[in-house]
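Notes on consecutive records. When two proteins share a document, each keeps its own sequence and its own token line. Never mix them. Below: protein one.
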Amino acid sequence: MILEGITYMHEHTTIDLSRLKKSDDTNLNCFDETVSEYKNLYDKGVRNIVDVTNLDMRRNPLYVQKVAEQTGINIIQATGFYQDKFLPSFVTEASIDQLSSLMIKEIEEGIAETTIKAGIIGEIGTSKDRMTDRERKIFTAAVIAQQQTKIPITTHTTLGTYGHEQVAFFKEQQADLSKIVIGHVDLSGSTDYILKMLDEGVYVEFDTIGKENYQPDLLRIEMLKEIEKRGYQDKVFLSMDITRKSNLSYQGGIGYSYLLDTFVPMALENGVSQTFIDRMLRINPKKFMDD
């Protein structure tokens, strides 16, 4: 359930990718600093965060619940598996039915050994320019779980690649495209690439806002302007996908508030309408999650 207010649709309250990244920076476990930033977001009108940290990201549902309790922000947690190189051996051995049953259990009963129910499936991922056999198992299981529970699916595209193929897969599996968002599409740098996905009926996410080492935010804004011009204001979300301690303001990073404090004013100054901003941050997430 999405509360009235601003929603960040693709974030991580805590995440640990350090076993593969070989850097403690990718173990986002700074509880007090995260609480401080989330309180700041609350003061700016943020009421919901969709936390897409799943099984192989070293998720910690009780930690996330505690952050929610201390900040007043409604944090929606996820079930599912990530991209191939992060997958546990369990995925190799498990059947599609076992994977979908696990997701359904976490949606209907609770994540892991808790009673915290998952509100979204994801972020399920594909590798750069391809979908591996194990990723295909997960995508198939996610569709089965969606068909049974009716909750949305959120995806990871590595550097924005393989988005068209994800959509084609979902169509082939007869998934509900109106309940699917393709992630990281802003990393593609191509408006035409994104428009082709929007033509199919899925949602898309500009969810790496502020990561200018990948794409300049002004390019993201130019793409958003064209998407608005083409009439797809109802199908886009904004978020930041913060995963590192160094992203947080206490370490001199841009912090979770960058989206509202810097990106939104920049977008407005460069021709994105306030109406479109409100749709991406307020109206579209509520429709996607609640309808």
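Protein two starts on the next line and is unrelated to protein one.
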Amino acid sequence: MADSILVVTAHVGDFVWRCGGAMALHARRGVDVHLVCLSYGENGESNAAWQGGVQRDAVKALRRAEAQAAAAILGVASLDFHDLGDYPMPESADSIRRVSEALRRTRAQAVLTHPEHDPSNLDHCRTYEMVLRARMQAMAPGHGDDFVVPPQVLCFEPHQTELCGFKPNVLLDITEVWETKWQAMQAMPTQRNLWAYYERVALQRGAQAGRRGKSAGTRYGEAYQSIFPAVVAAFVG
């Protein structure tokens, strides 16, 4: 089975802004990238779509189409929508089970999701907790003999970093796939107000990564916080 990662987001737009570069970069290198969107973000993430008496189902269909287009640009291998609703997102034991099954099916070595704390959007907090519960279920032999080696969990950068207490310990150079991420961002016109914002974030993280890395060509980056310790045989050499 090919190497794989699993991305789990609260709303359909989240994956593009926060980890679209990581998704495109790994897909380009032959890693299977699997995506789960727990909601369409129809209630709180789709302001521009609520125009002229549009109906909820039409908003959800629009956001689904945007997510599918963006995912295709990024090279996503599989995409699953759970349609839980948002603002606020309800608890869902069924979604935990489905994410756990995705981990068992894909044998993902890493999961990308929201950080633990986000007081401005509790849907993100709930998604983080659901991912950790799904990870527990996936690694437990009592839930099936196809249990997995526990994957690393990497939290991507939230919209308001300081408010969330986000302290990145991984900076990813996404310079080579920035144009791909930018195209995927433009496939989300419902949230076009975020395009320039996340370009600035990528430039800021790229500048930081360039100072810490070996390449002077780093221009765009993404920030992540790993949840579990890395296991290494040595620090150098």
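For the record: Residues 4-191 form a domain with the Rossmann fold fold (CATH 3.40.50.10320).
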